[in-house]
Amino acid sequence: MKTLIAIPARYGSTRFPGKPLAKIAGKEMLLRVWENAQKTAAKFEDCHAVVATDDERIADFCKSKNIACVMTSPDCPTGTDRVVEAAESFADKPEFVVNLQGDNPICPPWFVEAVIAEYYNNNAVETVTPVVNLSWEQLDKLRENKKATPFSGTTAVFDKNGDAFYFSKNIIPAIRKEEKVRAAMPMSPVCRQVGLYGYRMDILRKIAKLPEGVYERLEGLEQLRWIENGIKVRCVKVDYRNFEKMSSLSGVDSPEDVARVEAVLAETGEF
pTM of the full predicted structure? Predict the structure, then answer.
C-alpha cells in the first residue's frame, strides 16, 4: 500500500462522550470525515482510508455504513499511537500515513490532497503539514483572538524548501516597521499551521518512540519534538478557496461546537 489515511476515533471523550457519532446537519461526524477521506483517496494511486478505534460502538457503526475499520488497543496514549497501531495492522504496510482526526469534519479534502501530493512528488519528505498564508486582515484577527485565548492558533516559519524552522503559539515572525511591510506586501509574512499531518512510515515509527521534547513541553506542540530530534517537517501552502469561514473552526471539541459547524455549513454549503 502506498498511502493510508488513518482516522482515529475515540468514543470516550471527557468533554463530549460519543463525539464521533454525534450528528452534524443530520449526518454523523465520523461519516462526514470518512466521506471526505474517500474523496481524497480516489484521486491517488493505491491510497486507502481506515477508521482506527478502540470502541465497539464505533466499530459497529462503521460496519453498518461499510466503513473500513480496525480495532486498536484501549491503552493507546495518543491519537498518533492509535494511527501507528492501525498502520502496522496491515500485512501490506503503507509507505505514507495521514492522520486525519475523526472530530474534524470541516477539514477541506484538498488540504489532505496537498499533504499526500507532497509525498507523491518527493518520497524523501519525512513529515508534511499544511499551512495557510494569512492576509493582513486575517493576521489582525488572529492577534485579536490571542488577546482572549493566547494559545489558540499555531504559526510556522520555514526555509525555501518549506521545511520548518519552528512552530509557535506566539505569532512568528515578528514584523519590524510593519507599516512599510504592509505597503510592500499584499499578503502578510505569517503562516498559520493546520493541525493535519502526513508521515513517512519509518518516520512515524520513530516518532512514536521519542520522549517529550523541551520546546514541545513549553509550547504544547508535538511537532517541536520531531524538529528537536532532527526530523524535517515539510510545510505546504493551502487555502480555503470559497470556504474561508471554515478557517475559524478547528474541529469539534464540545457539543457547542456542533452548532457552530452547522451554522457555517448552512452558510457556505458542503465541500
Answer: 0.93
